[in-house]
Task: structure prediction
Amino acid sequence: MWKIAIIDDDRQVLQGMKLAIPWDELNAEWAGEALNGADGLDMIRRELPDVVITDIYMPGMNGLEMIEQLRKEEYGGKIIILSGYADFEYARQALRLNVSDYLSKPISLPTLKTILEKSLHALEEEEERRMKQDELEHKLMMYEPFIEKEWVKSAVVGTLDQAYRMEHLLPAPYRYWSQNRHVVLGIDIVRDVRASQLSLSDWNLFRFAVSNVVSEIAQEAFEQVEYTELHSTRAALVLHPQSEMPEEQLEGRLLELGVKLIDCVRSYLKLVIRVGIGSIQDDWKDIPDSTEAAFRAIDLKENRAAEGYDLFTSIGDTKNGKGCPVLRPVKFYLELAGAIKTSQENQAERIIAEYIGRLEKQEGITSDYLQMLAGELWGIFAYCLYEVGMVLDDIYPNEQITKEIAGLTQPKQLEAWLTDKIAAISSSRQWRGNSKHRQAVDFMIQYIHEHFAEDITLGDLADKVYISRNYLSIIFKNTTGETFNNYLTRVRMEKAKELLLEKRMLVYEVAEKVGYKNVPYFSTLFKKFTGINPTDVIK
Result:
């Protein structure tokens, strides 16, 4: 409710104004009064009214002196001067002091109401802008770690937009990248019998545990490291050795670290991992090349670096993986996984077509490479669908897939095979009606209707359905046709309209009942969604 204060040395004017102002229509209340500028100043400091109506000629401190002091104290409310003197010089001073209106006595009731409505509307707009700014700043603070994490992942796999690949645009925590060398260790968790039996929530917990173990061990050997999860079973450990470290010493430390990672993950978590050591790069913009080299070493199982360990290295491999092209399949995998998780069939097919198109232009493509690629992609399919509640083995037995992959010898065959599988999965009954996507959205809709008065965020619901906030946002919009925030607001406004029509509560009470403490903001949203003001409903 808005607060209005009146300052005038004429008691009759004070009483007349208090009676004349349509308080309920304006959703306002009387905040206080004073007979002179000095007392008015004290009252305003104490009550903090939203609107001040004041005379100019008053004993002691006049109205303009009071306003000037208020502006020095950064009072942000609206000030309306109601004076018996139409003096140009006073009007000029009032304008300099950012007064909302300068009116002459006497004033008609309709004019007074119009002026007050204008001032209150201006306050509503300012409050809405401030709230949006505060919300934006809050979101930026809240999402800053997420944004930085996604930036690192993009820089590691090669999806970082060209516009951000400049030294001065490095986020503050990663500016040291420009002074160091870089090497990526690819981490691949083997889905052995034990790992395959884990539930999705347990699997995600173990992935988190692997990240903690790997990061802690790596920091003992290298001062500056980042760990970023990629897709399915894979993650990248980025190391930034000092430029002055001799090459031979660096290679030795990388091999020791790889062996220790494999041993510790097996010992602490009872999981098996494969580790690939990527190429050493001088420029941070070439980190994706190291990432690709690391996983190519794992996939081709060449250059085993330690007897009895699934530790492979690309350092010193002049053959570049037997001539296999550097087409950044890790980037391709990441983009494809994102499209599958969010049920974007057309997007997935486009990503496949673009990659196969580039693959066809490369020399040295072998059937073994294509089949390795197909096997890795099928593993990504299985993991992505597992995350949304589908078991791929129920649709395609392993024996069938193994046989089909063995027959892939040309890039176009791989493209046709992948698009056919995506189309079949997307049209399956499980995907359309019984997948975790549908279940997650149904849960969200029910939760919104039951808890609309609470402070609900998409992040909170993402934690409840075990789907990342970013993916859940896309899934919800794809399923319902509107954003999560818009749906939540619409539910609140529909409920508010029901309560207002019952005519048992005031506007501010209804606002609180549907989750809004700021009444002007609620009123703005209500009019946006219904086309009328809340006060119009209860008349």
Strands lie at 2-7, 28-34, 51-54, 78-83, 101-104, 183-189, 225-231, 234-239, 273-277, 311-313. The chain has four domains: 2-128, 176-313, 328-434, 437-537. Residues 140-146, 318-326 have pLDDT under 50 and may be disordered.
